[in-house]
Amino acid sequence: MDKVAFLGLGAMGYPMAAHLARRFPTLVWNRTFEKALRHQAEFGSKAVPLEGVAEAGVIFTCLPTTLEVAEVAERLLPHLRPGTYWVDATSGDPEASRRLAERLQERGVVYLDAPVSGGTAGAEAGTLTVMLGGPEEAVERVKPYLAYAKKVVHVGPVGAGHAVKAINNALLAVNLWAAGEGLLALVKQGVSAEKALEVINASSGRSNATENLIPQRVLTRAFPKTFALGLLVKDLGIAMRVLDGEKAPSPLLRLTREVYEMAGRELGLDADHVEALKLLERWARAEIR
Fold first, then answer.
1. CA–CA separation, 176 vs 277, rounded Å?
2. How far apart are CA 124 and CA 11, in angstroms?
3. Tens digit of each residue's pLDDT (9 = 90 or more) over 130-158
4. Among residues 3, 151, 165, 278, which one is catalytic?
5. What letter does residue 272 receive in the DSSP assignment?
6. Separation between Cα atoms, residue 132 and residue 164, nearest integer Å
7. Once rounded to an integer, what is the mean pLDDT over residues 245-252?
């Protein structure tokens, strides 16, 4: 097995890299290098300067946006070896990723977009879903290294993974907001949110938002910070570009983007994405409970 490298030890990347370190010789790098050193101490990975990751046969990135991935790639370009695979778990931009793939190909490096779904809980448990974009041969080559995944789906050419991820997160946003609107109306009618969810989750209106997010985070008023509202707004922007590129009819998704941008302005982009429902509660002068 090749040595692997993981760049970006954030809320998702830190546990994802831990799964790699349990199975492969793993190099880690993070902009805040102390976090790489902590990962080394905790999981037996090896913290290295950025150019050191070029030793790896498979390089993973999990950074905030494709812009940061491209910046790191430019810094690494003189050090990269032909035949290296670059697996980008960032929730990135399809078009920018296609440009990055072409740039890396100049050095003989094969780029695949491989965003994940499942949240921090899935990253810690190693049960993430990976949506891979890239050539079939490269997909088969990197699959054995996806130690953090329970399900891996090759969704199409480079960029397809990021497109699927953006649309998936747009659907998350729709489901969460719609459930919040409906539950607030029921609460104001005298129905407890808990009882309403007991019915909804045994019926056709159920979703991940009603089955997991709202019971665990809203009813409890816990609102843990696992996925920033600003990142969901970013993903909704990517989804809009996917829709624009295909000239797809999308009035509901476009309206959803507007309400989450409004929530970001009102609550701050560092708030958790589920906290968007606090804006609805403010408007309704009621809480979902």
1. 8
2. 10
3. 999 999 999 999 999 999 999 999 999 99
4. 165
5. B
6. 9
7. 92
Compute, in degrees rounded to 10, the torsion defined by CA atoms 31, 32, 36, 37.
140
Q: What is the DSSP string of 138-161?
A: HHHHHGGG-TTEEEEEEEESTTHH
- φ/ψ of 278, rounded to 5, equals -65, -30
Check pLDDT > 70 for residue 99.
yes
Cα 131–Cα 204–Cα 289 angle in degrees, nearest 5: 95
> What is d(CA 242, CA 155) in angstroms, rounded to the nearest whole number?
15
| Residues in the chain, total | 289
pLDDT at 246: 86
**Cα separation, 272 vs 224, whole angstroms:** 7
CA distance 248 to 207: 24
Q: Would residue 165 show up in a list of annotated catalytic residues for this protein?
A: yes
Element (H or E) spanning 60, and its range? strand 58-61
pLDDT above 90: residue 2? no
Distance CA 251, CA 165 (A): 19
Q: Which backbone phi and psi does 196 adopt, to 5 degrees?
A: -60, -45
3-state secondary structure (DSSP) of residue 42:
helix
| pLDDT confidence of residue 1 | 59
The fraction of the chain above a pLDDT of 90, given in percent, is 97
Half-sphere exposure of 284 (CA within 13 A, CB side): 18
User: Residue 40: which of 53, 54, 52, 29 has the closest Cα?
Assistant: 29
- pTM for this prediction: 0.94
Cα angle 196, 200, 204 (rounded to 5 degrees) comes to 160
Helices (H) and strands (E) in the chain, counts: 12, 9
> Mean pLDDT over residues 270-276, rounded?
98
Mean pLDDT of 90-103: 97
Q: Are 92 and 115 in contact (CB under 8 A)?
A: yes
